[in-house]
Design brief:
The complex is a heterodimer of chains A (about 200) and B (about 425). Chain A is of the alpha+beta class. Helix content of chain A is about 40%, strand content about 10%. Chain A contains eight helices and four strands, in the order H-H-H-H-E-H-H-E-E-E-H-H. Chain A has a four-stranded mixed β-sheet. In chain A, a hairpin with a 2-residue loop joins strand 3 and strand 4 (about 135-140). Chain B is of the alpha/beta class and about 425 residues long. Chain B has 19 helices and eight strands. In chain B, the strands form two sheets. In chain B, strands 3-2-1-4 form a four-stranded parallel β-sheet, sandwiched between helices. In chain B, strands 6-5-8-7 form a four-stranded mixed β-sheet, with no helix packed on it. In chain B, a hairpin with a 5-residue loop joins strand 5 and strand 6. The longest helix of chain B is centred in the C-terminal third of the chain and has 18 residues, at about 340-355. The relative contact order of chain B is 0.12. Classes of the chains: A alpha+beta (about 200), B alpha/beta (about 425). Chains A and B meet through helix 2 and helix 5 of A and helix 5, helix 7, strand 3, strand 5 and strand 8 of B. Bound molecules: flavin mononucleotide (FMN), iron/sulfur cluster (SF4) and FE2/S2 (inorganic) cluster (FES). Iron/sulfur cluster binds near residues 160, 334, 341, 388 and 390 of chain B.
């Protein structure tokens, strides 16, 4: 196994939280992405060992869910919603602008490896349409110009952490609802910034 | 629901405004008393299926352990209410979890939050940690000997996991494929084949109010049989999109023109989806002055569903709009049932070629024929020949545009393209 002793210990305590270890596949796949940047063969083998399944069983689960990426991603995954509410508010133009600025069609990673663009279905921000996520951090009220500026900014600054609050302030517009306070924590890498193994009451 | 100040994602504020009083009350009540109370409140599930919460609880099979899953998968286009509840008022949901758990003798609960909601998940996680630290969760809650553990589980970006049996499969570490009902009714054979309550985030968030103020007060907030308040997520071409907590019984005109500020840029209202992407559409000439009730929407051949109202003005091409809704279902089909897997893809392709100017004279009949194969008779609610309602839901935009906007569809076909381009 390529995971550190410490990471493995966290993974085991995570699997122990569930009545059946198999239930930990999804959080463990997120851990695997955190280790390698995407879900690798090696990562799936580790998850299989931790849950008592075969690597093929793990792969059949991983391949069902769009957020488990089985190929390498850019540092920043730019997901543009083009579902109905966003489409009604100009999301198709936002999508074209993102593709043009990134220099690749949706679903691909730019040659510099910095930016991946994808189109996604509704991300629960329809009141602030069109909506975009960068590494799953949300920005609402985005225009074609703003998404292009955002991709340029990502390339020029290569921020280590992406926060919804900063994206919104720099590139966003109207929102679905008032966020009340801004959230300091953010994402590092193309997967959701959420540490499942810190579940309250369980392992630290 | 109870109104809380803007920073009530913290326990301090939540408690300062009366939070957790309902959970404390519930600790002294029996299962029967709690089920009766929630039944008599008339609380209806807010996840879209519209089933009585109290009745669902009463069906829970006696085997134990039983589990509670709070459904925070919210992925139907137009719906963004649970995100606000998770981000802004997580303690209200957690208090609702305590009440539901006690009422159903559950000691282990899961909150399934869609993977694209990391910020709401972090807020919930922090709120859980606060509740654990205070002794409101964990071993011996509220000074009793009751144990309740709660785990946040992140989804992986699949709408179908909002369907309760697909969600259960997902939480068991499997592909998110719906199970066949019967026999897999969650209340009988749910998570790990044990009795399981699945309730929506908004549903459980209503419980603290009911405990604190009683069933009568809750009924009084609502309108007739639609008790309590309801969260409408309004999006599309309105001046003030957003989530609005309102009683039923107002009209669509009130909601669209008064509450949501009317149509943008002085345009005209063309059509709207009354209850999420699955719902058949409404048009102003027939439905604008209808009261918004579960019953009235049903009688008019649609549904209130999860409360997502998507408004379209007269600059909207309905073929493109329908294509976008159908594309969603084609994209999210889990692939188990042939009519859904194949049919939704065909529907999407035919709509796209009409939009792009390559439509043929027979295409409207063909569309309806494909739709009829997925949802025989094209009724709403659908006659079910698939494992879950996702397939039949894809038919709603098609029956809507062929019923109300046939001329516009034909104009695409005869004119060799979209008249709005
Ligand atoms: C395709 C499909 C998707 C669904 N998505 C959701 C969802 O995202 N959230 C939700 O609460 N219920 C969803 N439901 C309804 C659930 O199956 C279930 O009825 C609900 O969670 C029960 O909670 P309630 O009784 O409190 O409404 C969906 C149903 C179907 C058929
Ligand atoms: S109707 Fe579609 S989504 Fe539902 S179980 Fe069948 S194939 Fe899967
Ligand atoms: S339609 Fe784009 S966020 Fe809902």
């Amino acid at each position: 196994m390529s995971w550190s002793v410490e990471t493995l210990a966290r993974a085991r305590s995570l699997a122990d939280r569930y009545p059946q270890k198999r239930s930990a596949i999804m959080p463990l796949l997120y851990m695997a992405m955190r280790e390698d940047g995407y879900v690798t063969e090696d990562g799936m083998r580790v998850v299989a060992e931790l849950t008592g399944l075969t690597p093929v069983q793990v792969e059949s689960v991983a391949s069902f869910y769009g957020m488990f990426k089985l190929i390498p991603q850019g540092e920043y995954l730019v997901s543009v919603c083009t579902s109905i509410a966003c489409m009604l508010n100009g999301a198709d133009d936002v999508m074209s602008s993102a593709e043009e600025q990134a220099g690749v069609p949706a679903g691909e990673t730019a040659a510099d490896g910095v930016v991946t663009v994808e189109h996604v279905e509704c991300i629960g921000a329809c009141g602030g349409a069109p909506a975009v996520q960068v590494n799953y951090e949300l920005v609402e009220g985005v225009t074609s110009e703003a998404v292009a500026a955002m991709i340029r900014w990502l390339r020029e600054n290569r921020p280590e952490t992406i926060t919804a609050a900063e994206l919104q302030e720099r590139f966003g517009g109207a929102r679905s609802f008032d966020p009340a306070i801004s959230e300091p924590q953010g994402a590092i890498g193309p997967f959701p910034a959420f540490d499942p193994y810190r579940t309250a009451g369980g392992a630290s | 629901m109870i109104e809380h100040p803007s920073d009530s994602h913290t326990l301090e504020t939540y408690e300062a405004t009366g939070g957790y009083a309902g959970a404390r009350k519930a600790m002294d009540m029996t299962r029967d008393e709690l089920v009766e109370l929630v039944k008599s409140s008339g609380l209806i599930g807010r996840g879209g299926a519209g089933f009585s919460a109290g009745l669902k609880w009463s069906f829970l099979a006696p085997a134990r352990p039983a589990y509670l899953i709070v459904n925070g998968d919210e992925s139907e286009p137009g719906t963004f209410k649970d995100r606000q509840l998770l981000e802004r008022d997580p303690h209200q949901m957690i208090e609702g979890i305590v009440i539901t758990a006690v009422a159903n003798e559950v000691h282990e609960a899961f909150i399934y939050i869609r993977g694209e909601y990391p910020l709401p998940a972090r807020r919930v996680q922090r709120a859980l940690a606060e509740a654990y630290a205070k002794g409101y969760l964990g071993k011996g809650i509220f000074g009793t000997d009751y144990e309740l553990e709660v785990t946040v589980h992140l989804g992986g970006g699949a709408y179908i996991c909002g369907e309760e049996t697909a969600l259960i499969n997902s939480l068991e570490g499997r592909r998110g494929e719906p199970r066949i009902k019967p026999p897999y009714f969650p209340a009988a054979k749910g998570l790990y084949m044990m009795p399981t309550i699945v309730n929506n985030v908004e549903t459980v968030s209503n419980l603290p109010y009911i405990l604190e103020h009683g069933a009568d007060a809750y009924r009084a907030l609502g309108h007739d049989v639609d008790t309590g308040t309801f969260l409408f997520s309004v999006s599309g071409h309105v001046n003030r999109p957003g989530n609005y907590e309102l009683p039923h019984g107002i009209t669509w005109r009130d909601l669209i023109f008064d509450v949501a500020g009317g149509i943008r840029a002085g345009n005209e209202l063309k059509t709207w989806i009354p209850g999420g992407a699955s719902a058949p559409w409404f048009v102003p000439s027939q439905h604008l002055d209808d009261e918004i009730t579960k019953d009235a929407c049903g009688k008019a051949g649609s549904m209130l569903g999860s409360g997502a109202v998507i408004v379209m003005d007269d600059t909207t091409c309905v073929v493109r709009a329908a294509e976008r809704v159908v594309r969603f279902f084609a994209h999210e089909s889990c692939g188990q049932c042939t009519p859904c897997r194949e049919g939704t893809t065909w529907e999407e392709m035919i709509l796209r070629r009409i939009e792009e100017g390559a439509g043929r004279e027979v295409d409207t009949d063909l569309l309806l024929d494909v739709a009829d194969n997925i949802s025989p008779g094209l009724l709403w609610p659908p006659k079910m020949t698939t494992i879950c309602p996702l397939g039949p839901s894809s038919v709603s935009p098609i029956t809507s545009i062929t019923r109300y906007f046939k001329d516009e569809v034909m104009a695409h076909i005869h004119g060799g393209g979209c008249p709005f381009d």
